[in-house]
Structures are given as structure tokens and as C-alpha cells.
Specification:
Blueprint lengths: L7 H20 L2 E7 L6 H13 L8 H4 L3 E7 L11 H10 L11 E9 L4 H6 L3 E8 L2 H4 L9 H13 L4 H14 L7 H20 L42 H23 L6 E6 L1 H7 L1 H18 L17 E6 L10 H18 L7 E5 L7 E7 L2 E8 L6 E2 L2 E2 L6 E3 L8 H11 L5 H4 L31 H9 L5
Parallel strand pairs: 1-4, 1-5, 5-6, 6-7
Antiparallel strand pairs: 2-3, 3-4, 8-9, 9-12, 10-11
The structure holds guanosine-5'-triphosphate (GTP) and magnesium ion (MG).
The site of magnesium ion has 4 residues, from helix 2.
């Protein structure tokens, strides 16, 4: 059991939430799909395109219920959780389709309900099933997931972990200022608000510096320090881990005691409610991963992503005797890890991207016993911003992608204006991911990776969303994508069988 964690009251609440879910499920069967990923991974674009394709009869040949014509009616409905912001589908899709710009960054949780009427494939099911499924899609930052382990850590454990990470070679130069300040405070320093603020600011600056670094883009907890939302400036966010705390209790009136109380408040008021009200109620989960960005960032970025994914996966399948499982009353039975933005590559490289991503999560998946059923890895593009073509180059035929680079993007000294189409040779991913990862294991510590196995030379520019032709009746065509239908089939196709 977790130390000084959530009390029985919380346990009871979890059971209650699930009971009401199930009770309403009797009237209208529903499934909760969590969509997560680190910031900018593509969550908003994924949900917008998925919903748009469902509502507008998009090309979804691999999504069986739609292909076979068994789905009769699809519509948005008011979502059942009144206190959760609605996913602003209309705004996001208008940006994408009408203005051809990517939707704004979203920094909090949001939710959307889409309901499908369908005819069951089997006569038996037709007799007993309502033939209606509500899909509750929940968009939440992956950074919040990385906070869940805090529920099982007291302040000293949290401090020790944070300080160990801060002293690690890759981070030591970024954490120096904060560590010096925190060490000078000492465990017996007297509590006072301005020192607490200075420490919290210095700690936050260090977390931000790590995040901004292309080689270690994943996030260190507490997640809300980088995405405070409406908690900005509140005491629950005005604390910092302290180095070298002795065993035992914090002296009364000390800075240590003050920090400890605020850390506990963060767990109680921020992490706990997210866990209970959102995470513990999910049935299915997709984790979007910008693997291309990590590949581009070099071996350290890949290692960092592997670690972040391991932390994320551990939340979905906590071991039988872990603290998390004792609080979970339902179990996420399908997890999809999706490498996004595959439209930056020629289709010959899509399977390679998939294999590299699968390799990134394979060790973590094996560790938590999730390698078999229930976990899949795909390379997808929620919105396909490019078309494929070939160009003749010195007698060779090169596979290229064609799209409209965003204004200001540069490649080989050329700056784009955001209007014209351009053909780009994105480069190839290695065919065999093992070569890539063996090199990573051996050389990442020695930092000689690039010498032994050169990273693939990839050229990326960000493209504008595609131009959609209008059909006769002013009807917009649905958004083009790559393998979005395959993702849908895996995530909820079985619930429409
Ligand atoms: N070409 C292409 N670009 C994409 C795709 N999905 C996302 N992007 C790019 O990635 C950026 C981030 O996508 P979002 O969907 O806003 O990401 P998010 O995870 O919701 O980000 P936050 O809300 O900031 O956490 C977009 O602005 C696009 O530039 C895709 O399928 N194809
Ligand atoms: Mg978003």
C-alpha cells in the first residue's frame, strides 16, 4: 500500500465513480478512450481528424463497422461530465480545414462524446445489444501521467529522486543554480514565503531548461510546474525538492516542513483528483509519440523518449502488488502507441518508423508483461499534409513528398512563403532498427554514437494542413490521413461488433 496516500474515502469515491459509469452504461453503453502524449505530440489533431472522418464519411477502409455499412448514424452529444471542459472540436477543425493552420496548443484536459448507432454483425448480438455506443474521448497531457508515481512517494523520496536526476550527467549543468540554492537552505532553515518562492522559481527554471533541450525533451515531475493552468502561483505549486534530507520528521516551522506540506497538497489536490476522476475510469488508451522528432534529436533524445515511454506504460499496467493497481477498479485493456506525423516520410519508411517505435517500447512492454495482446504500435498521420511523388535526380528516381511548407520554414537556405507547394526528399530511416538500437545501448554512455553509426540524415519541414476540395453541394471532403482507420479498428472496432 502506498504510504500516507489517499484515504478510504478516496477508495470509496473510485468505486462510486465506476458504479455510476456502469449504471449510465446500462442505458447507453459507453467506452472511454484516453488520448495522451507529451506536449505537441499531436493529440488535438488526432481527435479532430478522427471525429471529422467519422462525422463526414471519411475514407476508413480498415475500420470494419463503417466499411461494412453497419454504422447508421454518428453524431456528437453533450458529454456526461459537466465539470470537464469540452474538447472544442468545431474550433479545431475550422482551423485545420478552413484556415489550413494547425490548431492552438491545448494545455489541460478536455472531453468529447461521439455516439454511433450500429447494427451488430451477429444476429445473436442484434437481439441483445442496444446497437448504440458512446465514445467518450478524453484528451489529457502526458505530463500529468508522469506525476502518478508521486502518489506513492513521500516528500523525502520525491526529493531524493529529483536530486539524483538533477545530478545526472546530462542535467547537471542545468540544475546547478537550483541545487546550490536548495543546498544553502538546509533542512533546518526557517520557513518563509519568499525563500519558498525563490526555490520554486529556480526549480521550475531548471525543469523548463531540460524541457527546452532537444536531447531530453521529456518531462520531469511535477508536470504542473510546466503547465500550471489556473493553479499558477498557488501554494500547491510553490515548493521545491530539497537535497540531502535526513531521516525523520521535519522540524516544526522549518522550510522543510513547509515544502513537505505543499508537496502533499500537490498530490492531494492535483495528482489525486486527476487519477481518480479521469485516469482510473479509462477503458482504452492511445499514446501519441513524436518519434521522428526524437530520431532527429539524436541518440540521447531517443534514450530519453524510451525512458519516458517506459514511465508512461508502467502507469497502464501496474504490477500486481504495486500501489497503483490497488486503486484501479477497472483495467485499460488496450493500449496503442502511435508514432505520429508519418506523412513527413515516404510510405516506404512508414513500416520502418513503426519498427523503430516498437523497438523503443519493447523493453518497457516486456517488463510490465504487456508484450502480447493489448498493446500495439503503429505509425500514423492523423492529418496527411503531403502527397507522394518521385523526381529524377542524376539518373536516379528519388521518392519525395510534396506539400506546402509553413511560412518561414527553411531547408538548404531556402525560406518558404507558406503558399507554394514543394517537393522534399525526406531521407530514409534505417531498415533494421536493431542496428540502430544496438549502437544506442553501447555508445550512448560513451557519447560516440554518431561516429559508430551515423544517424540517418533526415530533412523535415513543417507543412500546412492539406487543401481539401469541396464537392458539389458545398460538402467538405473528409481529412486525409495515414492508418487512422487502423488505429480506430484496434481501439474500439471490437465494441461495434
Ligand atoms: N504533418 C502533420 N503534422 C502534424 C500531425 N499531427 C500533429 N502535427 C503537428 O504537430 C503539432 C502539434 O499537434 P497538436 O495536435 O496540437 O499536439 P498536442 O499534443 O495537442 O499539443 P499540446 O496541446 O500543445 O499538448 C501541430 O501543430 C502540427 O504542426 C499530422 O498528422 N501530420
Ligand atoms: Mg492539444
Amino acid at each position: 500500500m502506498a504510504p500516507n496516500l489517499t484515504s478510504f474515502k478516496d477508495d470509496a469515491l473510485i468505486a462510486f465513480d465506476n458504479l455510476t459509469d456502469r449504471a449510465s452504461g446500462l442505458v447507453n453503453p459507453s467506452i472511454r478512450l484516453g488520448v495522451t502524449g507529451l506536449s505537441r505530440a499531436g493529440k488535438t489533431v488526432f481527435i479532430s481528424s478522427l471525429v471529422h472522418n467519422l462525422l463526414n464519411g471519411g475514407r476508413l477502409p480498415v475500420f470494419e463497422p463503417v466499411r461494412s455499412g453497419r454504422v447508421s448514424k454518428i453524431r456528437l452529444e453533450p458529454q456526461p461530465d459537466d465539470a470537464v471542459p469540452r474538447f472544442q472540436y468545431e474550433d479545431h477543425i475550422a482551423a485545420l480545414v478552413r484556415d489550413r493552420i494547425w490548431p492552438d496548443s491545448t494545455r489541460a484536459i478536455s472531453q468529447l462524446r461521439i455516439t454511433l448507432d450500429f447494427e451488430s454483425a451477429s444476429g445473436w448480438n442484434r437481439l441483445f445489444s442496444a446497437g448504440r455506443l458512446s465514445l467518450d474521448i478524453v484528451d489529457y497531457p502526458g505530463e500529468w501521467l508522469l506525476d502518478l508515481p508521486l502518489l506513492a512517494q513521500d516528500f523525502k523520496q520525491f526529493s531524493d529522486n529529483s536530486v539524483a536526476r538533477a545530478r545526472a550527467p546530462g542535467r547537471a549543468n542545468r540544475s546547478a543554480d537550483w541545487l546550490t540554492l536548495a543546498s544553502s537552505a538546509g533542512p533546518t532553515a526557517i520557513a518563509d514565503e519568499s525563500s519558498a518562492r525563490r526555490l520554486a522559481e529556480s526549480f521550475t527554471a531548471y525543469l523548463k531548461a531540460c524541457k527546452a533541450d532537444a536531447s531530453s525533451p521529456s518531462t520531469l515531475p511535477p508536470g504542473r510546474f510546466l503547465m500550471p493552468g489556473d493553479l499558477e502561483g498557488s501554494p500547491a505549486l510553490t515548493f521545491s525538492p530539497l537535497p540531502d534530507l535526513p531521516e525523520g520528521r521535519a522540524p516544526k516551522g522549518s522550510l522543510w516542513a513547509m515544502m513537505e506540506r505543499r508537496y502533499e497538497a500537490y498530490k492531494k489536490h492535483v495528482v489525486g483528483p486527476f487519477f481518480r476522476e479521469h485516469f482510473a475510469r479509462l477503458d482504452r488508451q492511445i499514446v501519441l509519440v513524436d518519434a521522428l522528432q526524437a530520431i532527429n534529436g539524436g541518440p540521447e533524445a531517443l534514450l530519453d523518449l524510451e525512458q519516458a515511454l517506459a514511465d508512461v506504460l508502467a502507469c497502464f499496467r501496474p504490477g500486481t502488488n504495486s500501489w497503483l493497481s490497488s486503486f484501479l477498479t477497472r483495467r485499460i485493456d488496450k493500449v496503442l502507441i502511435a508514432a505520429t506525423k508519418a506523412d513527413h516520410l515516404h510510405h516506404e519508411s512508414h513500416d520502418r518508423l513503426e519498427r523503430i517505435t516498437a523497438r523503443l517500447v519493447s523493453r518497457a512492454a516486456a517488463r510490465i508483461g504487456m508484450s502480447g495482446a493489448g498493446l500495439e504500435v503503429m505509425a500514423i498521420a492523423s492529418v496527411r499534409a503531403t502527397r507522394e511523388a518521385t523526381v529524377d535526380h542524376g539518373g536516379h528516381t528519388l521518392p519525395v513528398i510534396v506539400g506546402t511548407p509553413i511560412a518561414g520554414e527553411k531547408i538548404n537556405g531556402e525560406t518558404f512563403d507558406g503558399e507554394g507547394k514543394t517537393a522534399i526528399f525526406p531521407g530514409d530511416l534505417p531498415d533494421d532498427p536493431e542496428v540502430f538500437f544496438r549502437a544506442l545501448d553501447v555508445d550512448a554512455s560513451a557519447k560516440k554514437f554518431g561516429d559508430v553509426h551515423p544517424m540517418p540524415e533526415l530533412s523535415f519541414v513543417r507543412f500546412r494542413p492539406p487543401h481539401l476540395e469541396e464537392t458539389g453541394g458545398g460538402l467538405k471532403l473528409s481529412v486525409p490521413h495515414i492508418r487512422l482507420d487502423r488505429a480506430m479498428q484496434f481501439l474500439f472496432g471490437d465494441r461495434l461488433a
